UniProtKB/TrEMBL annotation:
Classification via InterPro entries: KR_dom, NAD(P)-bd_dom_sf, Sc_DH/Rdtase_CS, SDR_fam
Source species of the chain: Mycolicibacterium anyangense
UniProt GO molecular function: oxidoreductase activity, acting on the CH-OH group of donors, NAD or NADP as acceptor
Name by which UniProt lists this protein: 3-oxoacyl-[acyl-carrier-protein] reductase
Pfam families membership: adh_short_C2
Origin superkingdom: Bacteria
PROSITE patterns in the record: ADH_SHORT (PS00061)
GO terms of biological process kind: fatty acid elongation
Keywords, in A-Z order: Oxidoreductase
Residue ranges of domain Ketoreductase in the record: 8-192
Family statement drawn from the similarity comment of this UniProt entry: Belongs to the short-chain dehydrogenases/reductases (SDR) family.
Length: 248
């Protein structure tokens, strides 16, 4: 049987670790050639080697998603190397948690810039190629924090809610070119980002999940494979929650 992403070319930002790395691994497993993009060159190349390396259709690229030039180079280099671009995953993210009382303007700006400017740049550059191709899928990683709002995350919740509005507006602009844009909202997922949380807060959040456990990065990756494949060919502008029922 042909693999779900046979012959497709995908880019994943923030792919050196965590959810992005697992998305890249899973897309590759389902037949895609994948470019992993992240800030740190060594970590990114190492991650790409783990999955299969350039000989296996898997390469690493340095890209700070907040840089217009680097995002343009990422998309152009992908098309130069692999000849097309079918799936672009805006996954890179950071947190700078603090209460409103303590949060600095720099914490707010940093989070908004990586998530919103980064995702917007990724959408703009990837969709320019895809509209010419007359096909493509863009998946933006939002968060359930953008649906429910988390205290201590006013910056992050605003950014992740903003990604939903951005997804829908952009999806409307490019739908008639057969380019689809959707968002995924993970809940509590076990990654280096959440490993930084105090264990008691992590346990408390886990207890709030109807399925009574945190999710794994592979469970987010499954939704991305679906949105990147022909199985979702008539789905655009939507948000898929991967949260074990949290905030349903
Ligand atoms: P993670 O383990 O911290 O991985 C994020 C990756 O993005 C890191 O490699 C990071 O590099 C990279 N990155 C940060 N800023 C970047 C930039 N400007 N340009 C390019 N890459 C950048 O986080 P994760 O938990 O896998 O999260 C991945 C995505 O899922 C994020 O958008 C996050 O908000 C979202 N999410 C996560 C959860 C969760 O529970 N983990 C839940 C909902 C949504 P450095 O390490 O060098 O900073």
């Amino acid at each position: 049987m042909e693999k779900l992403l046979h012959d497709k070319v995908a880019v994943v930002t923030g792919a050196a670790q965590g959810i992005g790395l697992e998305i890249a691994r899973t897309l590759h497993h389902h037949g895609a050639r994948v470019v992993l993009a992240d800030l740190d060159e060594e970590a990114t190349v190492r991650a790409a080697e783990q999955i299969g390396g350039p000989a296996g259709g898997c390469s690493g690229a340095v890209c700070n998603v907040t840089s217009e030039e680097q995002m343009q180079a990422l998309v152009a280099d992908t098309v130069d190397t692999y000849g097309r671009l079918d799936l672009f995953v805006n996954n890179a993210g950071i947190t700078r948690d603090a209460s409103l009382k303590k949060m600095q303007v720099s914490d707010f700006d940093a989070v908004i810039t990586v998530h919103l400017r980064g995702t917007w740049l990724g959408i703009r550059e990837a969709s320019a190629v895809m509209r010419e191709q007359k096909s493509g899928s863009i998946v933006n990683i939002s968060s359930l924090s953008g649906k429910a709002g988390n205290p201590g995350q006013t910056n992050y919740s605003a950014a992740k809610a903003g990604i939903v509005g951005l997804t829908k507006a952009a999806a409307k602009e490019v739908a008639h070119h057969n380019v689809r844009i959707n968002a995924v909202q993970p809940g509590l997922i076990r990654t280096p980002m959440t490993a930084a949380m105090p264990p008691e807060i992590f346990a408390q959040r886990e207890a709030d999940v109807p399925m009574k456990r945190a999710g794994e990065p592979s469970e987010v990756a499954g939704a991305v494979v679906f949105l990147g494949s022909e199985l979702s060919s008539y789905i655009t502008g939507t948000v898929i929650e991967v949260g074990g029922g949290r905030y349903m």
